[in-house]
Amino acid sequence: MKRKHDHGFPARDAIVAFVRAHPGKVGTREIAREFGLKNADRAELKRILRELADEGAIAKRGRKIHETALLPPTVIADITGRDTDGELLATPTEWDTEQSGPAPKIRIHVPRRLQPGTAAGVGDRAMLRIEKADDSEGAPYRGRIIKIIDQARTRVLGIFRKLPGGGGLLVPVDKKQAGRELNIAPSDTAGAEDGDLISVDLVRSRGYGLASGKVKERLGSLSSEKAISLIAIHAHEIPQAFSPSALREAEAAQPADLKGREDWRDLPLVTIDPPDAKDHDDAVHAALDSDPNNKGGYVVHVAIADVAFYVRPGSALDREAVTRGNSVYFPDRVVPMLPERISNDLCSLVPGEARGALAVRLVIGPDGRKRSHSFHRVLMRSAAKLHYAQAQAAIDGRPDDITGPLLEPILTPLYAAYALVKLARDERDPLDLDLPERKILLKPDGTVDRVIVPERLDAHRLIEEFMILANVAAAEMLEKKALPLIYRVHDEPTLEKVHNLQEFLKTLDLPFAKTGALRPSLFNRVLGQVRGEDYEPLVNEVVLRSQAQAEYSAENYGHFGLNLRRYAHFTSPIRRYADLIVHRALIRALDLGEGALPESETLETLSEIAAQISLTERRAMKAERETADRLIAHFLADRIGATFQGRISGVTRAGLFVKLSNTGADGLIPIRTLGTEYYNYDETRHALVGSRSGAMHRLGDVVDVRLVEAAPVAGALRFELLSEGQLIPRGRKRDGAKASAKPSKSHPGRSPRDKVRKPHKGKSGKAKPGKSKKGKSWKR
């Protein structure tokens, strides 16, 4: 019998016990059904669940509820040590300690008979199948190794510095190993020259002096145009070379023909991509719907390169693709998921060439909503290859020789269909953050020419919205057919992050009244209130930091940012393995021929793939970011002493991070250099606050800085702050209390009288204690 309170509601421990018995499988609806609660009781049940979440007894993952800190059945973990019995211990690789506390330990069970590729040691990273341990003392989970993802590193990457007497030193490129140089004997240099990027095997590590190493591989000189991206490629162990068997399969592949396909070659599909795109894997077409029941509606066709036709499950190409997980994009090169024969040739929808494709036909109503969809395996022929600005210019009245003939029959209907889709998009109200992306343009020698922020055009939004529609249709079709798939999911923000955001917004007198379910519209309301204000970038940044990170999962818990219940990646199988899985699942579900998802691919195996490709995606993002940092550091290395304007992009107890306005370069201002007084870290305000003067340096503030140090190899910059801080009036609470005036337009983030005198510097250049002026109170 289920334990209930006097008022008919289940006891709190009964709810937690039910959640524990069904990990990751229950939500509010299932709990209500289990305890016989009616619709009228839902509000009270949600209140109880919120209280349990606030107390840390349960947590939400999308619409599902589970015990706090409950790990999924499949997890990527780092093996950190051994217990007193000698058994291996691990912790999850992806874990938010600020949100969830210390990472739980996993005791690894090693069977008597090891499967190939599962022998692990301390320092390795492995994919584990885990379960709750009966005896939770010391480690609440038991795990079994599925496969080793990464072995403990005995190799170091760095720059070779030649010594006069022979031999040399290795200067590591990893920031965490900065200052830990390795000694390389003359006989172990393998001919390395000064400035070479090299890979070194550790020979021995002494208790004193420098550790020793032996050059394993020379990877190129830093003066070469591709050396910068090579650092990230090797540092993150991103596979570059394809196996001979994979290359043989790619070269042996033949173009698709009409066998088993519909003939769409007369349909004038076009590709619209960035001007420097090397492959073109999606094409679009739109036309007014001739169906009298959909008057004013459109039919949109989205055709995606048929990668599944060439990359068969279990093949050498498939093994290479799943290992990479995705393509990686650097300013000077692309490390592709598939060989160029596939990605840039057979699966590139070039104009005038017949290409195999998996396509979706979308029927859009006059209200912009999708009425129906159908998937087709086709042979198509692209009518034109356009870039975004070119297509936009034609619509804006400036067609060229290519777009002129396409304007009325192709481009105008595409934009008319997009205008309808935008109506539904605005009604859906997805998260609308304004975060401009910078692009690094290189000179022919591989050095930085300039950094630009490409203009965001309707052409970009058109392709984006059509791709979202296609992705939704793919997820809906596979759910309807009850086939397993890999979803693209984005969890809603945690209660703690929402609370922290509320506290921050109070300091700006911005309301964030959360009533009922959490929706993107709540965040958009705040973003709309600050549009055009000096602190708009600050609020955009803090709202972004309150959000969860998108990932791949075989379990669907929706996409919060897009405000979609089901969403899967379908539109880029050339560069994302998740999309290839979805293509194979559609081929199997609709009996479309060869290359279908095998019966052996179950929810369990797809969970493993989702965990791995989520990891490779984050690896790629980190490598791309580090390469951009190194390129910019090289670009600015000869400008030591120059002054720049930027915006505070991060506030920590160690100091301030500043992003420069022109280049987007990030650098640190150490807290010890801010002045003569002690600075307190105010987590709520995202600020460092002077204990004596009340001078405040806050996330989002516009500041002037001087570049004092650049470390190109590590991609690190150090700045000196030149701007004065904002003043918090004495006697005023610093916990979000109201102030009396908005920041001025003339000096963003500071009212005209809120000045703090900078410390006076004597002849020695050292700061001396100075006085600060009191400013009048001002409103935040």
Automatic annotation (TrEMBL):
Where found in the cell? Cytoplasm
InterPro entries, per database record: CSD2, NA-bd_OB-fold, RNase_II/R, RNase_II/R_CS, RNase_II/RNase_R, RNase_R, RNR_Ribonuclease, S1_domain
Q: What class of enzyme is it?
A: hydrolase
* Catalysed reactions, as listed in the record: Exonucleolytic cleavage in the 3'- to 5'-direction to yield nucleoside 5'-phosphates
Q: Which UniProt keywords apply?
A: Cytoplasm, Exonuclease, Hydrolase, Nuclease, RNA-binding
Q: Determine the domain of life of the protein's source.
A: Bacteria
Per UniProt, residues of the S1 motif domain are 641-722
**GO cellular component terms listed in the entry, alphabetical order:** cytosol
- Annotated Gene Ontology MF terms? exoribonuclease II activity; RNA binding
Q: Where is the sequence biased in composition, kind Basic residues?
A: 744-780
Q: Which residue ranges are recorded for the region named Disordered?
A: 730-780
For biological process, the GO terms are:
mRNA catabolic process
Q: What is its EC number?
A: 3.1.13.1
Major location (coarse): cytoplasm
Q: Which family does it belong to?
A: Belongs to the RNR ribonuclease family. RNase R subfamily.
Query: Its biological function?
Result: 3'-5' exoribonuclease that releases 5'-nucleoside monophosphates and is involved in maturation of structured RNAs.
**PANTHER family, per the entry:** DIS3-LIKE EXONUCLEASE 2, RIBONUCLEASE
Can you name this protein? Ribonuclease R
Query: Which gene codes for it?
Result: rnr
